[in-house]
Amino acid sequence: MDRTEYPQLGTAVRAARRASEALRSFPDSPAEFRHKTNGDIVTAADRLAEQAILDELRKQFPDHNIVSEERSPEFTTKPRWVIDPIDGTTNFLNGVPHYSISIAFEGVSAADVGVVYHVPTETMYTAIENGGAYANGQPLSLSATTDLSEALIVTGFDPASMQAQDFEQFRSLLDVTQGVRRFGSAAGELSMVAAGQFDAFFERMLSVWDTAAGVLIVEEAGGEVTRIKALDGDNSEMILASNEYLHQDLVTLVSSGTVPEPYR
């Protein structure tokens, strides 16, 4: 596949780079921020990075709809762009070098595109529907781990996971796997699963701008993704992404809290 034939990919990459340049203009610990109604934080940096992305998208595709965490969370028809200018704002605020820019294109007749730019490491993850996934131009492949006891899981903590019943199910991951890590950028961590750095990603309550690009990158790298919509009125969903060998055992584990037979 000639990836240069997909203008949406080039536009998304340019938009991500423009947004990263905006972020680099901020001090190490930006002070100005406000809390959103769901407890998340939005900063002047979020808004500036978002504007850099919007300027590039609207210049190239003025007729496309845009879903953005900071301005337009409502859902719109395709073709559309789904963006998160900083996935990992709390990390960014505290100088923790783990945050990402997430841009996805969801087409009608054109192929979907996903771009996640991990700014601190300057790693550009890209994927085209049926065209594979790459990091800085190199093909991605998931881990070859086949045993849950050897699996390293990356996750996020959300209100649902902290409820008693769900926490018991979450704790089963700790009991069975090699370990569980929590870093704070779902898009970046989905991309790291695609790169084989983690064996699986799991989180119960995510929004489309958190996952649209990262899920495509995992799938195009050869991974499996289970998505379950939450009936909460907020269009959130559970995401479980892993290599093909671990996926069914992980689905069983997180959906019921029951440890699969070979691991008891």
Q: How would you describe what is shown here?
A:
- This protein is α+β, with helices and mostly antiparallel strands.
- The chain folds into two domains: 3-139, Fructose-1,6-Bisphosphatase, Chain A, domain 1; 148-263, D-Maltodextrin-Binding Protein, domain 2 (3-Layer(aba) Sandwich), CATH 3.40.190.80.
- It contains eight helices and 14 strands.
- It has a seven-stranded mixed sheet, with helices on both faces.
- Helix 1 runs antiparallel to helix 2, helix 5 runs antiparallel to helix 8 and helix 6 (186-194) packs parallel to helix 7.
- The termini are far apart.
What is the topology?
Blueprint: H1 7-24, E1 33-35, E2 41-43, H2 44-60, E3 65-68, E4 80-87, H3 89-93, E5 100-106, E6 113-118, E7 123-128, E8 133-135, E9 138-139, E10 152-155, H4 159-162, H5 164-176, E11 179-182, H6 186-194, E12 200-206, H7 208-220, E13 224-229, E14 237-242, H8 247-256
Parallel strand pairs: 3-4, 10-11, 10-12
Antiparallel strand pairs: 1-2, 4-5, 5-6, 6-7, 7-8, 8-9, 12-14, 13-14
Helix pairs in contact: 1-2, 5-8, 6-7
Question: Can you give me a brief rundown of this structure?
Answer:
This protein is an alpha+beta fold.
